[in-house]
């Protein structure tokens, strides 16, 4: 596959700026600027880099009154849009998305591409047990193909010989990394997340939603009949927010979680500043509104079968503050915590 990002689209031209603030090609300036971004809005993946280049190059062109110049990308296959370029800037969501693409590609028997994607997952998350297991599977399949065998007629002798690559990954290493793949229930406020983990593992989504609210209020030192205030959200410990989010993301197979909701909100153009219309659009997207009507808590779908991604968690959202700016601030906090 090929990944190419051109400085302009067909029938357009690329421009240079002589102004001492730029002093180079607009595309080059925007590219270097994008790769230097830290934290919120970073360009760790091909997709985020390309999206930012399209907007940033256009902004600079307008600023210096240059004709239209729109970066143009060829990404083959499209799966590679989720490749991680900047390992240190990658979020858990970036890794989860790449992992999903790798698994789907493997299931389609595109073993070469699947191998590349799983290796990228390992580059960002060296202790990822799922990636190690997947690579063992792929190398076994590749070895079988070379021997003219299929998984159906593999013999006991074949199992003992998994090829040179698979031999380098011992069973002990795989077991250890599988343990590492388990989520540590860390808390800066000594909150016990065992119940939340168990509810999620058993797919008791409503109980998990209510337990999430209980944990969040406990972290903030609040009673459950209180409302979250701005300061509570802005000072919420990243360790606890990350533990809660990772549990939701893991047990929902990346369908639920604060990081999932944050990404949906940001993809709609959401910023830290509250925008009522955009917040309604977000609520429509995650299934908290139908038509012009906000749903009551009892009307939500506490089941993984819902077609709404990011539908949960939601219980904390029914505090007074959330209706206005709480959700927006929470997503901003999630970004600062690199969820």
Structure notes:
This protein is mainly alpha-helical. It folds into three domains: 2-82, Alpha-Beta Plaits; 91-180, Alpha Horseshoe (Serine Threonine Protein Phosphatase 5, Tetratricopeptide repeat), CATH 1.25.40; 194-336, no CATH class. 50% of the residues lie in helices and 5% in strands. The protein is built from 15 helices and six strands. It has a two-stranded antiparallel ribbon. Strands 2-3 form a two-stranded antiparallel sheet. The chain has a two-stranded antiparallel sheet with strand order 5-6. Helix 1 packs across helix 2 (46-63), helix 9 runs antiparallel to helix 10 and helix 13 (258-267) packs across helix 15 (326-336). The chain is globular. The two termini are 30 Å apart. The relative contact order is 0.08. Mean pLDDT is 82; it is low at 150-164, 169-180 and 317-325.
Termini gap: 30 Å
Total count of helical runs of at least 4 residues: 15
Number of strands: 6
Q: What percent of residues adopt helix (DSSP H or I)?
A: 40-55%
